[in-house]
Design brief:
Layout: H1 13-19, H2 45-48, H3 60-86, H4 94-106, H5 112-126, H6 134-141, E1 163-173, E2 178-187, E3 190-201, E4 204-207, E5 212-215, H7 232-251, H8 254-257, E6 274-283, E7 290-305, H9 317-320, E8 322-336, E9 339-347
Antiparallel strand pairs: 1-2, 2-3, 3-4, 3-5, 6-7, 7-8, 8-9
Length: about 350
């Protein structure tokens, strides 16, 4: 079927004839017009030319979509990572939230460290009293006690007590404002504990009430020795070797000390603070080439001696000798080629008997 060519409806019939684009069949797609066609006039050439319609880039749409998805995932991961650092547990599951919850309850906001130091300073003033220094004590207590309290803060002004040493034994925090600091103190009458109530606010700290005197820790009874028999052969061998080790240990001479040490062992001596006296006890259990033993050593304190009482004759060798201290060590010894060497030395919780 014949139909008119698609031309600009504004052209005159004579222009169509001149140009050779009369009524013809519509050109099939892909067919190029003959090269000898008459050149279109300047009047209608721009109207005849049309830019080819852009039909997309094919697979590039999938690439750009995939890139957008990747960027979205990276942004989400980065956001969650930042939030997890700033606010831990925000995205956690119920188990993690349950683990973090008790920490918030425990952290009451009470300044425990500051309260302990405050109670120590208070105890240093409160536990010292004497009528001769009553006025000074009252003035020193003023920064610690509530306004309007009696200057003596419970003391009747009679008697004398001297504080020798004190330490913080414990603190019991009740809430964000109140706690009780327990001091372990050595006073002239003995070992005591003192409960000091401390109140905290934005204005500072104060001992909110009179302290409470508490009994000192009771004396415990350590467990008895295991009762295992000593290795007599090892005791005899170590009794001949350990005196040389302890002499070198007391002096701190690393060259001499190294002769008694096992390979790889590192032991630092006492630097001449004491000198070796004797071995008063040793516990050597049976076993293999490596043993853990307990040894009691008597040290002689340098520059110290026992003063002989006036008017009495010297009937004891200790009266003219240096002061001595018996101390107990736990040691790890290793036997190599029939000789015992020291691998480690430290404090012992076992009091050995005689060698």
């Amino acid at each position: 079927m014949v139909r008119k060519a698609t031309l600009d409806r504004g052209l005159r019939p004579d222009e169509l004839a001149v140009s050779g684009l009369g009524v013809t069949e519509e050109a099939e797609p892909g067919v190029t017009q003959p090269a000898d066609l008459t050149e279109p006039t300047e009047q209608w050439r721009p109207q005849q030319w049309r830019p080819q319609q852009w039909r997309g880039a094919g697979g590039r749409w999938l690439i750009w979509t995939f890139r957008a998805v990747i960027w979205a995932v990276l942004l989400i991961i980065g956001f969650r990572g930042v939030v997890s650092i700033v606010s831990p547990g925000h995205f956690g599951d119920s188990a993690v939230k349950g683990t973090n919850a008790p920490a918030a309850v425990t952290n009451s906001g009470f300044p425990s460290g500051l309260a302990e130091a405050f109670a120590l300073q208070f105890g240093n003033v409160y536990l010292n009293f004497s009528p001769a220094t009553a006025q000074q004590r009252a003035g020193d207590l003023t920064p610690f006690i509530p306004v309007g309290s009696a200057p003596e803060f419970g003391w009747n002004g009679v008697g004398t007590q001297q504080l020798q040493a004190e330490q913080v034994a414990s603190i019991s925090v009740q809430n964000s404002h109140q706690a009780v600091v327990t001091l372990l103190a050595q006073v002239s009458s003995g070992l005591i504990e003192l409960g000091v109530p401390v109140y905290s606010s934005q204005d500072g700290l104060v001992v909110s009430a009179e302290p409470a005197l508490l009994p000192g820790p009771e004396r415990a009874t350590p467990p008895s020795a295991s009762g295992a028999a000593n290795d007599a052969v090892a005791v005899t061998a170590l009794s001949g070797q350990l005196p040389g080790f302890f002499r070198a240990y007391a002096s701190g001479n690393q060259q001499t000390l190294g002769r008694y040490l096992a390979p790889g062992a590192v032991v630092t001596g006492l630097g001449g603070a004491v000198t070796y006296g004797s071995i008063s006890g040793m516990e050597v259990p049976s076993g293999g080439a490596t043993r853990r033993i307990a040894v009691s050593v008597t040290w002689q304190v340098a520059g110290q001696s026992t003063v002989k009482p006036r008017g009495k004759q010297d009937t004891s060798s200790l009266a003219a000798g240096p002061a001595g201290l018996q101390m107990t060590y736990e040691m790890t010894v290793v036997r190599q080629n029939g000789t015992w060497y020291v691998k480690a030395i430290g404090p012992s919780d076992l009091q050995p008997g005689g060698p």
